[in-house]
Structures are given as structure tokens and as C-alpha cells.
Amino acid sequence: MALFHCPRTAAIMIACYQLLPTSYLLALAPTAVTTAETELAAHLSHACLSGKPAVWIDCRLLETVSPTAAWLLWACQQRLHRRKARLVLCQVSGAVKRTLRHTLASTGAHLMMVPTLDDAAALE
User: Fold this and answer.
1) Which helix (H) or strand (E) holds 45?
2) pTM of the prediction?
3) For residues 124 and 120, what is the distance between their CA atoms, to the nearest angstrom?
4) Residues 6+ apart with CB under 8 A from 78
5) Which of 38, 62, 66, 119 would be 114's cystine partner, CB 3.0–4.6 Å?
């Protein structure tokens, strides 16, 4: 289990990760334990290198996300896009959506968000 720290917000833990037939799934959850955000970067990098056409990030348990985490997700999306793969955020709360949109507004890009994991699977 890997953890990363979100400054000015609750800490987030990688609750689980799983290699699925057509995607790589990371589930995120809040936790009281904190370590460096480099752990999130490492998990996203591993997901990008998995060779899967999609990386799904299950956000259903998150109430907040740091700007640093938002930039890490955006960088992962860019990396995946270059190899014709996609990043899909699933079950994102309104507060997390607002933080992501506000943080990434200067890029002109948006992270793909869907209501459920079933919706992410339907994109395949």
C-alpha cells in the first residue's frame, strides 16, 4: 500500500491498484497517515508503463485533492495521450472536480471524468 501527502488538504492513500484486462485501476482514499506525493507519481508512472490502453482512477472516497496531485494527474494524462491511451477519473466529487478544473485552467485541457467505473469501461 502506498501513500502520498496533500498539502493543505487531507492526506490520500492508494487504497488499491489492479491490472485489469484493458485497464489499470488505482483507487484513492483519504487517510491520516502522510508521506511524500512522490508515491502518487510513482504509482501513476507504473500505471503509464503498464501498456494498458486506459488508466482508471477511482475517486469515490476523496473529498479533496491538492493542486500538486492535480498536476500529477494531468501529467499522467499527457503521457498516456502520447501513446494513444487515456486517463479516466471515476466517481469524482464536486469539490474535487472544482479543484481539478481550477488548478488546470491555465492548460486549456480537461481531465476525463465519468460517473462510474462502468462508464469508464464503456469507453473501451
Assistant:
1) helix 38-48
2) 0.83
3) 7
4) 109
5) 119
